[in-house]
Amino acid sequence: MMMSRGATRAARSVMGHVGPRFFSTATVRGGAANGSATGVVGASGLLGVNPFMGSERTTVAWIRFPVMGVRKESTVALGDKDEHPEKQAQTGGASGAAGGGGDDKAIVSYWGVEPAKVTKEDGTEWRWHCFRPWETYQADLSIDLKKHHAPVTFLDKVAYWTVKSLRYPTDVFFQRRYGCRAMMLETVAAVPGMVGGMLLHFQSLRRFEHSGGWIKTLLEEAENERMHLMTFMEVSKPRWYERALVVAVQGIFFNAYFLAYLASPKLAHRVVGYLEEEAIHSYTEFLKELDKGTIENVPAPAIAIDYWRMPPDSTLRDVVMVVRADEAHHRDVNHFASDIHYQGHELKSSPAPLGYH
Ligand SMILES: [Fe+2]
Ligand SMILES: [Fe+2]
């Protein structure tokens, strides 16, 4: 017991002395807007290797204030922007949409976990906690949207007709409410990447072998789909029964896809490939409705403008265009993954298309 207390005291002493020094001696790249900010080794070490950061488009400073305090104070900080600049400086001024709540109670950071303050190249704050500037990209709109994998084998036909049969009830349920449809279907679209990535992760652990980058690729896909959801929920709000439907569908689809992937990854990836083909079709119909004027072409949500590096005057139509391009990339990745299995290989034997957007 005495030994334990002694060890704890020693650890606190080390944290108390080494921690602050470690997190405060490096200088902030590009000059942080906040005078109270101190740079960290992590900032230069982690971000220095990133080409986006290397081009000085953003600056990062780590503030000596509790991380939870910043996240929970975000909305308050936004509202106080003009009236209390000093408070803004202390909290890092994160936006409410970036993942905060309304609680302005500061939490003491005993663990040395520091909140990051990220600014854009023009010195304005980076609003989002859920993704960073170096995780954004410009969609490749030149991708061929018409590509289709013709189902030949028995498993291909199972995958194809499974997806086709799922289309009918969704058409009946959503009719032409494409905004709502997009939001709801993105809650499903973000499941396969997470399940596949998780299973490959565990497989890598069990077998003591590399994944060839496929874990990361599939998790990237899941995150990308989730960002589609974060975008569409800005233009369409779910009703209570739609939320209930999402809970039910997630419970069923997660388990079904989990079992399908365990049984046959080539079938699972083929199913996703066809799902993505249907998603492209749905977004094309969405665009037609926007062009006809039956759906109002509202300004693009701020999160979309930052995530896809879109011009500030972008509209919902532009957002649908980039989302549709993302779906085409998912289509290619998943059909490709299925093809690898069909050719008798495992995914790890072919380098994963990391960052393929
Ligand atoms: Fe999506
Ligand atoms: Fe997708």
UniProtKB/TrEMBL annotation:
<keyword id="KW-0812">Transmembrane</keyword>
<keyword id="KW-0999">Mitochondrion inner membrane</keyword>
<keyword id="KW-0560">Oxidoreductase</keyword>
<feature type="compositionally biased region" description="Basic and acidic residues">
    <location>
        <begin position="76"/>
        <end position="87"/>
    </location>
</feature>
<feature type="region of interest" description="Disordered">
    <location>
        <begin position="76"/>
        <end position="101"/>
    </location>
</feature>
<keyword id="KW-0809">Transit peptide</keyword>
<keyword id="KW-0249">Electron transport</keyword>
<dbReference type="GO" id="GO:0102721">
    <property type="term" value="F:ubiquinol:oxygen oxidoreductase activity"/>
</dbReference>
<dbReference type="GO" id="GO:0005743">
    <property type="term" value="C:mitochondrial inner membrane"/>
</dbReference>
<comment type="subunit">
    <text>Homodimer; disulfide-linked.</text>
</comment>
<dbReference type="GO" id="GO:0098803">
    <property type="term" value="C:respiratory chain complex"/>
</dbReference>
<dbReference type="InterPro" id="IPR002680">
    <property type="entry name" value="AOX"/>
</dbReference>
<dbReference type="GO" id="GO:0046872">
    <property type="term" value="F:metal ion binding"/>
</dbReference>
<dbReference type="GO" id="GO:0106292">
    <property type="term" value="F:superoxide-generating NADPH oxidase activity"/>
</dbReference>
<keyword id="KW-1133">Transmembrane helix</keyword>
<comment type="similarity">
    <text>Belongs to the alternative oxidase family.</text>
</comment>
<dbReference type="InterPro" id="IPR038659">
    <property type="entry name" value="AOX_sf"/>
</dbReference>
<keyword id="KW-0496">Mitochondrion</keyword>
<dbReference type="GO" id="GO:0009916">
    <property type="term" value="F:alternative oxidase activity"/>
</dbReference>
<keyword id="KW-0408">Iron</keyword>
<keyword id="KW-0813">Transport</keyword>
<protein>
    <recommendedName>
        <fullName>Ubiquinol oxidase</fullName>
        <ecNumber>1.10.3.11</ecNumber>
    </recommendedName>
</protein>
<keyword id="KW-0679">Respiratory chain</keyword>
<dbReference type="Pfam" id="PF01786">
    <property type="entry name" value="AOX"/>
</dbReference>
<keyword id="KW-0472">Membrane</keyword>
<keyword id="KW-0479">Metal-binding</keyword>
